[in-house]
Design brief:
Elements lengths: L1 H7 L26 H4 L11 E5 L4 E5 L6 E6 L59 E2 L19 E2 L154 E2 L9 H6 L3 E2 L1
Parallel strand pairs: 4-5, 6-7
Antiparallel strand pairs: 1-2, 2-3
Length: 334
C-alpha cells in the first residue's frame, strides 16, 4: 500500500474540482473513480515532494520521498497553492503524458523539464509557474488557463492550444511553439524573443508591447501555414530582426510597432493600422498594404512589387519614393 502511495501520491496535488465531494480515501480502487484516471501514468524520479493521505489526521501532507520526512503544511485539495520549501507543487522532470490537470491551482509551481504531451491544463491557475525546458509532442491544452508571469524559456511544445490563455508578462524566450494556437490570448508585454512560432495563430490576441525580437514566424515549412496575427492588437510591439515572411497581419493594430531589419517578404498588412510604425525592414518585396493606415510610418526599404492600393499616408510618412509614385500605386494622401 505504501509503495502505491509513493508511485501516485503526488499527483493528487494537481487535481482540484474533480475530487470535490468524493470519498477522500482515494487510494481504494473500489471506491475511487479517480483511480482510473491515473493508474496508467508512470512518474519519473526523483521528486522533491509527494502528497500522502494521512488517515489519522484526515488530511494530505507533504513527504520527502528520499528522507520520508513529513511536512505538515496545510494542503487543501480543492484550493491547491504552492506550499513552503519542500513543496507538493514541484513537478520537475515529471512524466505527465495525458494527465488531466484542468482547473488545478498550481500558482508558482515548477514543471521544469516535465513531459506534458497530451496533458490537459485548461482553466488552470498557473501564475508565475516555471515551464523551463518543458516538452510536449502534441495535444497539450492550456485553453483559458492563467499563465500570467509564467516562464517558458526553451520550452518545446508541438501545436499547443492556448486559446484565450492569459500570458501577460510571460517569458517564452527561445521557446519552440510551432503551430501554437494563441487565438484571443492575452500576451501584453509577453517575451517571445528568438522563439520559433512558425504557423502559429494569434488571431484577435492582445499583444501590446510584446517583444518578438528575432522570432522565427515564417510559414511552417512542413504545413505551409502562415503565421497569423490577423485582428490582433499589437501597439508598440517589437518585431526587430524577426523572420515574418508571409505572415498575416491583416486588420491588426500595429501603431508604433517596430519591424527594423525584419523579413517582411510577402507579408500581408491589408487593412492594418500602422500609424507611426517603423517599417525599415530588411525585405518588403511582394508585401500587401491595401487600405493600410501608414500615417506617420517610416518605410525606407524598397517596396518591390508591393501592393499599396488604398493605403493612407500623410506628410509625416517616410516612403522610399515621392508623391507622384505613391499616386501611381493608388495610395491616398491625407
Amino acid at each position: 500500500m505504501r509503495k502505491f502511495l509513493f508511485s501516485f501520491g503526488f499527483l493528487f496535488c494537481v487535481f482540484a474540482s474533480p475530487v470535490a465531494g468524493q470519498n477522500v480515501s482515494l487510494f481504494d480502487r473500489a471506491s475511487s473513480p479517480l483511480y482510473n484516471r491515473i493508474k496508467d501514468f508512470k512518474l519519473k524520479w526523483p521528486l522533491k515532494a509527494i502528497l500522502i493521505w494521512n488517515k489519522k489526521t484526515g488530511r494530505f501532507i507533504c513527504e520527502n520521498p528520499l528522507t520520508r520526512r513529513e511536512s505538515y503544511n496545510s494542503v487543501n485539495i480543492q484550493k491547491l497553492v504552492r506550499t513552503k520549501k519542500g513543496n507538493c507543487a514541484n513537478l520537475s522532470s515529471a512524466q505527465l503524458m495525458g494527465v488531466p490537470l484542468y482547473h488545478a491551482r498550481l500558482i508558482g509551481a515548477t514543471l521544469e523539464s516535465a513531459d506534458l504531451t497530451n496533458a490537459n491544463l485548461a482553466m488552470s491557475d498557473l501564475r508565475n509557474a516555471s515551464f523551463v525546458k518543458a516538452t510536449s509532442l502534441g495535444g497539450t491544452l492550456f485553453n483559458g488557463a492563467n499563465l500570467k508571469g509564467a516562464t517558458l524559456n526553451s520550452a518545446s511544445f508541438e501545436s499547443p492550444k492556448m486559446i484565450k490563455t492569459d500570458l501577460d508578462d510571460s517569458d517564452m524566450t527561445g521557446a519552440i511553439l510551432s503551430d501554437a494556437d494563441f487565438s484571443q490570448a492575452l500576451l501584453i508585454k509577453a517575451k517571445l524573443v528568438s522563439s520559433v512560432i512558425e504557423g502559429a495563430r494569434f488571431n484577435g490576441a492582445a499583444m501590446d508591447k510584446a517583444d518578438l525580437t528575432g522570432a522565427d514566424a515564417q510559414k511552417n515549412p512542413q504545413t505551409g501555414e502562415a503565421t497569423d496575427f490577423s485582428g490582433a492588437q499589437m501597439q508598440n510591439a517589437r518585431f526587430d530582426g524577426a523572420n515574418l515572411s508571409g505572415a498575416n497581419f491583416s486588420a491588426s493594430i500595429l501603431s508604433q510597432a517596430s519591424f527594423e531589419h525584419a523579413n517582411l517578404g510577402e507579408a500581408n498588412f491589408s487593412d492594418a493600422n500602422l500609424e507611426g510604425a517603423n517599417l525599415s525592414a530588411e525585405n518588403l518585396a511582394l508585401a500587401h498594404f491595401e487600405r493600410a493606415d501608414l500615417r506617420g510610418a517610416k518605410i525606407t526599404t524598397p517596396l518591390t512589387q508591393a501592393t499599396m492600393t488604398g493605403a493612407v499616408y500623410d506628410s509625416k510618412t517616410v516612403l522610399p519614393f515621392d508623391d507622384a509614385k505613391a499616386h501611381e500605386l493608388g495610395m491616398i494622401k491625407k
